[in-house]
């Protein structure tokens, strides 16, 4: 019996792939299948996969032309034969006991999803820091979104969890297949957490999430509107599931606003005005539909929101001023800064460390 199907979506990750696959084949739980989907890599990724597959028959390689992350993940979901589904990104790696511990928790607690904390990892420095993303308020207990809607505030991090395959099959949960898009874990995670009857969260961390992969989609400024499509999918999902919408829509709106605002700050300035048009029109519709309730303003500055939906030109001007100030601060930090942590104090001048105490 296959206990866990581990899906690994792969595109041009030769630098990190061997470390990732080794961490999976060395799992203490042996009843796994490793579904490696090569999405048209042009580097040596496929050769690396083939060399591992010759040694470990649990590895299944699916080689296809490039069609994007969403399509790749959906192939993995359709091919999976395990009780549960796990996901590991090819530039990350995991502790050897990750899937055994998550599986044992899932079976012991009879839950649909077990979700864990994870580490932020800087490969160049070989530094790892536990994120603390799992709140103690809903950790180590069986729950669902009706009891704790706040679970939807957690970063999607779909690779720090396992999902009962029956849940995904029953509700036909899939990834959006937007070509070239990113953030396609957003709507997938939202649907899974919302539809699960029994959730379990653990503050234990197992996966090392690499922050310094220069090719990561999170560093691409060209994929400006991908996150909008994810939230449009979530909106359609909630409109088709009114009982769930009545519980979580307030949290969804706050998350959407905060995510759009974050995206607004990181995108190229040439596309900022177009994105603000989208941002403004979307939330103006919510406002006119009566979906913006008073709790919304506990997390979102009301004057800023009103400016967004009623005076876009002024909003653009304010945002640009704010970004200019942040840029100036960052330049000053690069020129001179004092950095303090638990073990040392360092002084940096013109980007170079000159004193360490």
Please, could you describe this protein's structure?
The protein starts with a strand and ends with a strand. Strand 11 (336-340) and strand 12 (345-349) form a beta hairpin. Strands 1, 2, 3, 4, 5, 6, 7, 8, 9 and 10 form a 10-stranded mixed β-sheet that branches. It is of the alpha/beta class. Helix content is 42%, strand content 21%. It is built from 11 helices and 13 strands. Helix 6 (185-195) packs parallel to helix 7, helix 7 runs antiparallel to helix 8 and helix 8 packs antiparallel against helix 9.
List the helices and strands and how they pair.
Blueprint: E1 4-10, H1 17-25, E2 32-39, H2 45-53, E3 59-64, H3 69-79, E4 84-87, E5 93-94, H4 98-109, E6 113-122, E7 127-130, E8 142-143, E9 161-164, H5 165-171, H6 185-195, E10 199-210, H7 226-239, H8 242-266, H9 269-288, H10 302-310, H11 312-335, E11 336-340, E12 345-349, E13 352-356
Parallel strand pairs: 1-2, 1-4, 2-3, 6-10
Antiparallel strand pairs: 4-9, 5-10, 6-7, 6-9, 8-10, 11-12, 12-13
